[in-house]
């Protein structure tokens, strides 16, 4: 059986052998790109080469890129633990041509890799192309010998990639693996395509045009290639399992979580262990790339991920901080491929431990309040925004944590009510400071308060001084 580490090496080795420069993953925090929360695809570090703003030092490259899709345009946070194929943090394997080879060679290489090197049976594979892309359709037919019904034309934006409103763009072609009839879900383009039977393993983007203005698209003089394969999804296929969380890497992390809690990964606890394993990876890699928990921006996304995992640790009955104890298992699994994990191990452990200690001061009481506020609510009901806001403000529950906590019972949250409560509190805070005369101090205080959020000020509350917290 090929391990995740073997598959990563095999992919990079294959493209290296085929004239690609092996380039290291870039940071999860994109450089010089304030529009992007986290690196969410392999092409991010190469953006300027594709737009022509700078010239690539090599005509072809291959990477295994750290990606986070939690927050921002791509947000898979709510899928984690519930679909077989989504993580917040994952590795995207890719090959890139910067104005060098194009569609034909890209398809040839991809098909050779998965069917010859990886040995996937052709019968299990199907592909999609953009409905207008006859060229890709015939290439798949000729190179892969796929029958027409396994080359599905798709008309949606899923198969047309755009960097932004302007810039490089083009059709894509996605490769799917059929996990078998026993798993619910329809083929791509069908009404029930969101199931886990047909899983997208690889996306080939053919950067063919430049969007100059709305409605004005011209062919690029030197078309480029950008591809992304989910390493964990490929491992799932190659290891003969049907869920990303059953691959060697996740089994090791879940084993660590089971050992530390003494709770088997079964029944209702399975999702908790999976979420903990996923969020452990995302948190650790984000911390290794310099993100620290805070109440704004990237740091708040990190805090939300950490606290979600910590609620699940609590559900598993962990009485002491759990996540930091799993870091050695993660370092063992991934430290060789990503030495930054080894370098940052102490920082990662300490950040996780302190955050969990801090959140545990309010977590149990917050959950108590949540229980009280929702007893008697039935499936389809909504928790009022006031309570959700109190959980946020006093107990440090990010809104999405409350939503996730109620999801199993199919109870929603009044998010508009939450926003209103938040606004009201801000307005009250401003009003109570009006008239002190010291506008500079006021501005600083209010800015700080907005930035840090009220939970940071728990230390000043009456309860804290009474030693209850
Ligand atoms: P999906 O439709 O399954 O959400 P996607 O179309 O959003 O995937 P792409 O943006 O095309 O994904 O990314 C390229 C590849 O990265 C995908 O083909 C898939 O193998 C992998 N991938 C995407 N999102 C995730 C995720 N959240 N977790 C794990 N792998 C992912
Ligand atoms: Mg997606
Ligand atoms: Mg897709
Ligand atoms: Mg895709």
Automatic annotation (TrEMBL):
Signal sequence region: none
Catalytic reactions of this protein: tRNA(Ala) + L-alanine + ATP = L-alanyl-tRNA(Ala) + AMP + diphosphate
Localization in the cell: Cytoplasm
Enzyme class, broadest EC rank: ligase
Cofactor(s) required for function per UniProt: Zn(2+)
GO molecular function, a single term: alanine-tRNA ligase activity
Domain notes: Consists of three domains; the N-terminal catalytic domain, the editing domain and the C-terminal C-Ala domain. The editing domain removes incorrectly charged amino acids, while the C-Ala domain, along with tRNA(Ala), serves as a bridge to cooperatively bring together the editing and aminoacylation centers thus stimulating deacylation of misacylated tRNAs.
Family: Belongs to the class-II aminoacyl-tRNA synthetase family.
Protein name: Alanine--tRNA ligase
Encoding gene per record: alaS
Residues of the full protein shown: 1 to 469 of 882
């Amino acid at each position: 059986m090929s391990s995740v580490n073997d598959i990563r090496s095999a992919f990079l080795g294959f493209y290296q052998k085929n004239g690609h420069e092996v380039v290291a993953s870039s940071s999860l925090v994109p450089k010089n790109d304030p529009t992007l929360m986290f690196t969410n695809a392999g092409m991010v570090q190469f953006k300027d080469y594709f737009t022509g703003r700078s010239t690539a030092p090599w005509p072809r490259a291959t990477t295994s890129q750290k990606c986070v899709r939690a927050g921002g345009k791509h947000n898979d946070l709510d899928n984690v633990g519930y679909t077989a194929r989504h993580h917040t943090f994952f590795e995207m394997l890719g090959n890139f041509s910067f104005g060098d080879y194009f569609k034909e060679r890209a398809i040839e290489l991809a098909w050779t890799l998965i069917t010859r090197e990886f040995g996937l049976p052709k019968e299990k594979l199907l592909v999609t192309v953009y409905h207008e892309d006859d060229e890709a359709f015939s290439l798949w037919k000729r190179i892969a010998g796929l029958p027409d019904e396994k080359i599905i034309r798709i008309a949606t934006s899923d198969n047309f990639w755009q960097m932004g409103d302007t810039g490089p763009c083009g059709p894509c072609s996605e490769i799917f693996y059929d996990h078998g009839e026993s798993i619910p879900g329809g083929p791509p383009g069908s009404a029930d395509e969101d199931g886990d039977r047909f899983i997208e393993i690889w996306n080939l983007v053919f950067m063919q045009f430049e969007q100059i203005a709305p409605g004005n698209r011209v062919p690029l003089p030197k078309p480029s290639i950008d591809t992304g394969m989910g390493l964990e999804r490929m491992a799932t296929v190659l290891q003969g399992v049907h869920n990303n969380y059953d691959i060697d890497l996740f089994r090791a992390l879940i084993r660590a979580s089971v050992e530390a809690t003494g709770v088997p990964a079964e029944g209702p606890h399975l999702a908790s262990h999976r979420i903990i394993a996923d969020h452990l990876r995302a948190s650790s890699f984000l911390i290794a790339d310099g993100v620290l928990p805070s109440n704004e921006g990237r740091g708040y996304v990190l805090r939300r991920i950490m606290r979600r995992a910590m609620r699940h640790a609590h559900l598993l009955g962990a009485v002491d901080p759990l996540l930091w104890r799993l870091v050695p298992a993660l370092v063992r699994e991934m430290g060789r491929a990503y030495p930054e994990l080894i370098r940052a191990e102490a920082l990662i452990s300490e950040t996780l431990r302190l955050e969990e200690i801090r959140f545990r001061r309010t977590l149990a009481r917050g959950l108590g309040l949540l229980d009280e506020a929702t007893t008697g609510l039935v499936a389809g009901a909504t928790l009022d925004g006031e309570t959700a806001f109190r959980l946020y403000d006093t107990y440090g529950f990010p809104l999405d944590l409350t939503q996730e906590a109620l999801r199993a019972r199919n109870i929603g949250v009044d998010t508009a009510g939450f926003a209103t409560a938040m606004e009201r509190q801000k307005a009250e805070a401003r009003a109570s400071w009006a008239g002190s005369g010291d506008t500079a101090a006021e501005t600083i205080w209010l800015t700080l308060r907005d930035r840090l959020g009220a939970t940071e000020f728990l230390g000043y509350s009456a309860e804290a001084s009474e030693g209850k917290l």
